[in-house]
Amino acid sequence: MSSEKVTSGNLKINLGPFNSGNVTSGTGSIGQGLGKLVINGNLEVLGTTININPVESLIADAFFTAAGNQSGTYANATLPIQGLLTITSNVANTFTYAGIRYNNAANTWQISSNTSIDGSAGTWSSITSEAAGANTQIQYNYDDGFGASSSLTFDQSTNILGLDGQINLAHLASTPANVANNTVFYANTSGSGGTGLYFVDADNTQDELVSKAKAIVYAIIF
What we know:
Blueprint: E1 81-91, E2 94-103, E3 108-115, E4 125-127, E5 140-142, E6 145-147, E7 152-155, E8 160-163, E9 184-187, E10 197-200, E11 206-208, H1 212-221
Antiparallel strand pairs: 1-2, 2-3, 3-4, 5-6, 7-8, 9-10, 10-11
């Protein structure tokens, strides 16, 4: 037998027994109910907001469907995006959210540590487990994702590092320490060698590489 309850105001259900307080109405207090509400059937909520305030929620479903109706200002035909958000801060009732979402237009999962209540603002970074580029190409950060180039490679079978480009060495404030079985190169202000490129070998020998022009001068003098 079906039935329908219609009310013009709020409807509150208090389930006892209660661990404290009195079950009253109006301005009275209500203790935390320890009872259980069981619904043997489906539950359909047609409102716009659901507030759930338990200490812990246990949900048996293995999967959740977000934005199943594909409605709202941010889930639309041109840029359908769905995800989960959590509040990370609240300063003077200004909330900051973090979340994970799936961007259908970009065909990728994205994460953000600073976004808005609808997930439309802030910076979102793509999540990917796929390597960029071709075999032997070194991975690097490119626009918050993986990048690669044929100009930067490493062949593990031959231990050869390939670079088709320039290396910019910033000047070090102090001479680096020697490393066993290694030669360390570094840059600093040009000295008598005229290059500004220095080395420290395994025996802690420290010197500057000499330019061709300086080498010719030294050859004439000495």
